[in-house]
Design a protein that fits this description.
Elements lengths: L1 H14 L12 H15 L11 H13 L3 H9 L8 H14 L2 E3 L6 E5 L6 H4 L6 H7 L3 H14 L1 E3 L2 H4 E3 L5 E3 L3 E3 L3 E8 L15 E4 L5 E6 L5 E4 L3 H11 L11 E4 L13 H4 L5 H9 L5 H17 L3 E4 L12 H14 L1 H4 L4 E3 L17 H8 L4 E5 L6 E3 L4 E7 L2 H6 L10 H4 L12
Parallel strand pairs: 2-7, 2-16, 3-7, 7-11, 11-12, 13-14, 14-16
Antiparallel strand pairs: 1-6, 4-5, 8-9, 9-10, 15-16
Helix pairs in contact: 1-3, 1-5, 2-5, 3-4, 3-5, 4-5, 8-10, 14-16
């Protein structure tokens, strides 16, 4: 009961704030009126209650409230058998109704999309002067930089949304515009991370080695430090963002997290799940070395473990997109090449991560120019027929959003060493580069 009281106190305090939060002040008169409305509506929407305890229901509804999902919070509360007798439920439902009135529709064409590659935990190993250091410096972000970026964006009012909030697919395959309703002052944005496969070439370079479930069933990273110790914790974007949202639930709109753009040729999420590891055919040199170094490797177990991690991530609001199986340049390759590649993705990756209707192009190499996709574009025709409706390239502009009756398209902004070093002004709407720059990053960052 003490826990419930603390939660309710926090909710009541938030609901009473004015200004940037966008919530309306709660007077006794408003509270009484809203509670009367809740009572009046309760009987109409009553459903059989879940077997959850009162505390867990209130916890869930409170998170929904904090993440602007007011209708679902009210729905959950009202379906409890004791709703009309539980003051905590009634008060929270009333606060949801009040807060809902303060929401404003955010313009979809002004939603930015930022992305990262694998984060660097140990800069001394990533930036050690070998042949890979320059590329790491260009396209990667350090854990320190990521943490600062996310905190600053949160402080500015940014809120995580999904392309699926921005556009929806109709039963006939056409697309319709979505509607994102947030408190005044909040700024929706999309976040994605590329290549979360922990490729062989990254071994020993100061990055996480895989995503795992810890003893509590939470998604964390396995990380091997410089001394060879295997650690489990927050060493890359997924668990770092999970932990941040746990502390700041209002950073997520309706429970949204980010999107992982996944290849398949080295497996997924740090697990060697591509069929080549099972058949031993058409292996690259680093794949051969992996199998030689791991004579007890169990392919089927890796597939099972990767699937469990992916399922846990999806349950927590993460989404997956194709990044093409072989990290292909979609601009340069033929429609037939892309079809063959996508069939490999569907055979090797989809059984683990699930089907997806999103493709995030590797290299940002798009299948059409800025004017949009045409019906006679064979690459678009294939991807559309294969179930893809959401397409993302790389674009340095603040906003690039196209929503038609056939597809959703959005440009992504790279928040990496290259962009921060050469074009800090292009990121000023998000953060001040001087406030996040990791001093252990070598300069000058190599030119591309």
């Amino acid at each position: 009961m003490k826990k419930r009281a603390l939660i309710l106190t926090a909710v009541l305090t938030a609901a009473a704030l004015t200004g940037g939060s966008g919530y309306l002040p709660v007077t006794d008169g408003i509270r009484a009126k809203m509670i009367q409305n809740v009572y009046a509506d309760a009987e109409d929407s009553k459903e059989s209650a879940d077997t959850e305890t009162s505390d867990s229901v209130l916890d869930q509804a409170t998170i929904m409230y904090q993440q602007y999902n007011y209708d679902e919070a009210i729905k959950l509360l009202k379906k409890q058998d004791d709703f009309t007798k539980n003051k905590d439920y009634m008060d929270l439902a009333a606060k949801c109704q009040i807060a809902k009135k303060s929401l404003v529709e955010y313009p979809l064409e002004k939603i930015t999309h930022v992305f990262f590659h694998t984060l660097i935990e140990d800069t001394s190993r990533a930036f050690d002067g070998d042949s890979k250091s320059g590329n790491y410096n260009q396209v990667m972000t350090t854990v320190s930089e990521f943490n600062k970026i996310i905190q600053i964006m949160y402080d500015k009012g940014y809120v995580l949304v999904s392309p699926h909030d921005m556009a929806t697919v109709n039963k006939d395959g056409t697309m319709s515009r979505g509607k994102i309703m947030v408190p005044e002052g909040k700024i929706p944005f999309v976040l994605s991370q590329d290549d979360v496969s922990y490729y062989h070439y990254m071994d020993g370079d100061g990055c996480a080695s895989k995503l795992v479930l810890d003893e509590n069933g939470e998604v964390k990273n396995e990380y091997v430090d410089a001394d060879g110790n295997v650690l489990v914790g927050d060493y890359d974007l997924v668990p770092l963002l999970d932990s941040f949202i746990k502390e700041h639930p209002d950073f997520s709109y309706h429970g949204r997290k980010g999107i992982l753009a996944m290849t398949g040729y080295n497996g997924v999420l740090g697990y060697r799940t591509d069929s080549a590891y099972k058949t031993g055919e058409n292996l690259q040199d680093d794949q051969k070395k992996f199998l030689e170094d791991h004579p007890d490797f169990d392919y089927d177990q890796d597939v099972k473990d990767a699937t469990k991690v992916a399922d846990a991530m999806k349950a927590e609001g993460w989404e997956f997109a194709s990044h093409t199986w072989g990290h292909m340049n979609a601009t340069e390759r033929s429609a037939e090449d892309l079809k063959t590649d996508d069939e490999k993705w569907k055979a090797n990756v989809a059984p683990i991560l699930g089907d997806t209707d999103m493709i995030i192009f590797a290299f940002g190499a798009d299948i059409g120019d800025w004017e949009g996709y045409s019906s006679d574009n064979p690459k678009f025709q294939y991807y559309k027929s294969a179930g893809y409706d959401y397409f993302c390239n790389v674009d340095s502009s603040q906003y690039f959003v196209q929503i038609t009756d056939q597809y959703f398209r959005q440009g992504r902004r790279n928040l990496d060493g290259y962009r921060m070093y050469y074009n800090p002004d292009m990121l000023s709407d998000l953060f001040d580069v001087s406030e996040v720059w990791d001093s252990s990053r070598p300069t000058p960052v190599p030119e591309m």
